[in-house]
Design goal:
Length: 133
């Protein structure tokens, strides 16, 4: 019998990062995309970057920048967004990271990332007028 999702997250928290993208509107009604990587163990923000038009190549470069000097997670939890590209999991496996896509229609599967994004919105972005990247 396999372990439940909650058990997996608890057992691997010290080796697990979460990745997620969220949108931020600008003053001129442009949409910016923010990519965050969060370590589950201490809920530490590992890397953040912004792009007007994120691509699979950009997302991959952000993962490489977030993991300097071999500091990387064993597992990377992400949603099924197409911006990661078709070969993201295979490429991540080559550098020693197991990229796990969240289950379909399971919004709470990446709850730590969702909570951090909510905090960023409430505590920071709701009090700023974003002009550009």
């Amino acid at each position: 019998m396999s372990q439940t999702w909650r058990t997996f997250l608890a057992n691997h928290a010290h080796q697990l990062w979460a990745a997620d993208l969220f949108t931020v509107p600008t003053l001129t009604f442009k949409t910016l995309y923010v990519l965050v990587f969060i370590a589950h163990g201490r809920r530490e923000l590992m890397h953040v970057n912004v792009a007007a038009n994120p691509t699979a190549a950009w997302v991959w470069r952000q993962l490489i920048e977030a993991t300097p000097w071999g500091r990387k997670p064993r597992h990377l939890l992400r949603d099924r967004d197409a911006v990661y590209g078709r070969d993201f999991r295979r490429r991540a496996r080559r550098i020693g990271i197991d990229a796990i896509a969240t289950p379909v229609r399971a919004p709470r599967a990446n709850a730590i990332a969702e909570r951090v994004i909510g905090t960023l919105r409430r505590e920071c972005l709701d009090h700023l007028v974003v002009l550009d990247e």
